[in-house]
Each structure stands twice: as structure tokens, then as C-alpha cells.
Design a protein that fits this description.
two-stranded antiparallel ribbon, mainly alpha, globular
Amino acid sequence: MKKIFQFGEDVEGYNIRVLNEREIRAAAGIMFLAAFISWMFILFQENFVPLKYVITLFLVDFVIRVFINPKYSPFLIFGRWVVRNQTPEYVGAAQKKFAWVIGVVLVSTMFVHFIIINAYSPIASITCLTCLIFLFFESVFGICLGCKFYPLFFKEKAQYCPGEVCEVKSKQDIQKISKVQSFILFVFIVLIFVLGYFMNNRFQEKPYDLFGIYGTEQTK
């Protein structure tokens, strides 16, 4: 029974319980894709049904992660299967639990709005967007935004963070951003605004069927 209700795994060589960051990122990617697709249904079809399914499944998954055992989380199991051939990257379980508690709060808020009350509001929209941002950063950048708040509430230092960001160390040359690279990034950002100002009307024109094989007329 103790093994069932447990947060994190006991791994040889680690003095605290840990989790596999690779399967966590895979699970976050799967969840982000599901949430993003359901969001698109709302934007383009005003169809809230997919989002209601996603929110319910997310809540069940997070409850299992936080209150039972991450090992039995359906999304994490799926993520484990996806990255089963990759070498595990261990991270401290404590900060992940804190981050997932935030996840429970966010998803519960959406569950109350969209399923129990069956209504939407700016609160629900902001909460949903926040979840998407959290999942995106976790899956794409390997950055746990929820973990960033861990030191604000707990005195003990987080251990075994993804990418060893908890450890103070000097950056290697390949990690440093030069002045030339900074300038290129600045020019790129300026280009985005220039395109938006000068090319917006052109970009809004609907492309026409060049070979006439789709039976559509050119938009005038």
C-alpha cells in the first residue's frame, strides 16, 4: 500500500525521490497538443465539447499524479512509452509535486467553469491560456514554470533540476549569446513589426487556386 501512495521513485545514487524528466516532457507535449486542438475547435467552430473532455481527463490525471502516484498517471505512462528507448534524466520529485499542485488548481478552475457551471469567462480563458503556456514551456524548452515558484514557498533548495539549472555554474561558450547574435535577434523582432505594418493587407488576401483544380474562385 505504501508503494501505491508514493510520490517519486527511489533510484540508486540519488538521496531523494526522483522522476524521469523525459517522460514528463513527453506527457506535457501530448497534453499541450490535446489542449491546443480543443482550443482551435473553440476559436474556429465555437465548439466547447473537445475542451470539456480534455479538461476532465486532465483533472483525473493530475489528481492521480498528486494524490496517488505519478507512476499511475495515464499521460505519464503514455509519455514513458514514447521515450522508452531514451536514457532517463532524473529530476527532484518535490518541486514537480509543487508544480502539479498548481496544475490541479488551474484545471479545477476550468472544470468548475466549463463543466459544473457550464459557462466561460475571462477567468476561464486566462486559466486555460496559462495551462497552455505551462505545458508549452515544459514540452518544448524543458522549463518547468511551476517549479520556479518552489523556492518562494519552501526553504530547502530544489535538487536535480532539469538541465541542472539549480546549480550555480558558468556558461560554456556554446551557451553564450554574442553581441552579433543579439543584434540579429533585435533585427528579427523589428522585421516582425515591419511586416505587420506594411504587409498586413497583402497577407490577408486569400490565395487563389493557381491551377483551378479545387473549384474555388479567386477572392477579389
